[in-house]
């Protein structure tokens, strides 16, 4: 085999679907269907060039395994940074390795892709054909926090990440709670509301487990991008959020009524207002809420550093003791 043939064979090998490609598709799906390119770079090309990643992603896009914004989408939607999501062939690949057999569309036009989406949903596979454009910055922030959680745990040997549940799961299978809240006019009103966290995760404390003590910590995530006025946060988030942890639907889902809400918001002034609202609206459940700001992510450990505030105290505290 001459040099030219060896070069051609090497290039063909690069363009075949590889194990890493499948891992990239799983990562996109497991992070609620859309990630920033920098997320993929961090996970799969951490110490390598952007150029090498770009070549590989271009191959996956050319084969409809992934998609990214078109020129028209970039003009019409607020897109804060380069992102990728699953293409139809990527969705079929992941459905297939999950044991779901769905016929490949003969012509990938709009009607057939809509039909494919319906077929996959009917089998429990939720393919997001496009990002939620108006919530894209919020959704990418959730992924950033998820990375913050997992990288922080690497520095705490006795704590182990157990699971993460995406917002989409709570949207599909929403739990509802009844709760009382005082209206702006001062009247107590009974409300019925579905609770949809931006994420849920749990960690295991191995040292407590070995001692036979309660060892699982549960956390519900609320990412506040300052899109709600202050009173609505207390009424629509804090009050039902506190009631949810104490509710029967919560116990049925998580086999416990233990848990904490973690609220990450845009800045200290905004956080101060949310603390006041939660203290006012959540009442005796206010202690279930912990608040911090996005600027803490780059310089602190999610669990060990004292970057969290509760509505019932003026101190900043860690989530766990070392």
Structure description:
The chain is α+β, with helices and mostly antiparallel strands and 322 residues long. The protein has 2 domains: 129 residues, Arc Repressor Mutant, subunit A (Orthogonal Bundle); 184 residues, no CATH class. The protein is built from 13 helices and 12 strands. It has a 5-stranded mixed sheet, sandwiched between helices. A 3-stranded antiparallel sheet has the order 1-3-2. Strand 11 and strand 12 form a beta hairpin.
In short:
The protein is 44% helix and 20% strand. By secondary structure, it is an alpha+beta fold. The chain has two domains: 3-131, Arc Repressor Mutant, subunit A (Orthogonal Bundle); 134-317, no CATH class.
Q: How do the strands of the widest beta sheet line up side by side?
A: 4-7-8-9-10
Question: Percent of residues in beta strands?
Answer: 15-25%
Largest sheet: number of strands, sense, barrel closure: 5 strands, mixed
What's the SSE pattern? HHEHHEHEHHHEHEEEHEHHEHEEE
Poorly predicted runs of 5 or more residues: 5-13
Instruction: Provide the structure class.
Output: alpha+beta
């Amino acid at each position: 085999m001459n040099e030219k043939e060896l070069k051609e064979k090497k290039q063909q090998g690069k363009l075949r679907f590889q194990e890493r490609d499948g891992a990239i598709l799983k990562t996109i799906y497991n992070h609620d269907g859309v990630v920033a390119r920098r997320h993929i770079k961090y996970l799969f090309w951490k110490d390598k060039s952007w150029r090498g990643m770009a070549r590989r992603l271009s191959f996956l896009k050319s084969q409809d395994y992934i998609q990214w914004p078109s020129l028209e989408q970039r003009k019409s939607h607020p897109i804060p940074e380069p992102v990728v999501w699953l293409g139809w062939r990527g969705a079929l690949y992941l459905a297939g390795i999950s044991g779901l057999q769905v016929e490949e569309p003969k012509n990938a036009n709009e009607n057939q892709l809509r039909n494919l989406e319906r077929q996959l949903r009917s089998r429990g596979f939720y393919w997001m054909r496009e990002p939620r454009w108006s919530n894209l910055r919020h959704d990418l922030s959730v992924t950033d926090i998820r990375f913050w959680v997992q990288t922080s745990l690497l520095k705490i040997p006795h704590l182990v990440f157990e699971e993460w549940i995406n917002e989409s799961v709570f949207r599909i299978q929403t739990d509802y709670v009844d709760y009382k809240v005082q209206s702006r006019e001062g009247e107590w009103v009974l409300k019925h509301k579905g609770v949809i966290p931006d994420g849920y995760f749990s960690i295991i404390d191995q040292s407590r487990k070995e001692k036979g003590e309660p060892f699982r910590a549960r956390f519900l995530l609320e990412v506040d991008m300052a899109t709600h006025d202050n009173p609505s946060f207390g009424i629509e988030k804090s009050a039902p959020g506190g009631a949810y942890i104490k509710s029967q639907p919560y116990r049925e889902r998580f086999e416990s009524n233990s848990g904490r809400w973690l609220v990450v918001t845009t800045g200290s002034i905004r956080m101060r207002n949310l603390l006041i609202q939660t203290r006012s609206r959540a009442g005796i459940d206010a202690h279930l809420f912990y608040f911090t700001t996005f600027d803490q992510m780059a310089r602190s450990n999610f669990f060990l550093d004292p970057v969290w505030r509760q509505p019932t105290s003026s101190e900043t505290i860690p989530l766990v003791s070392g």
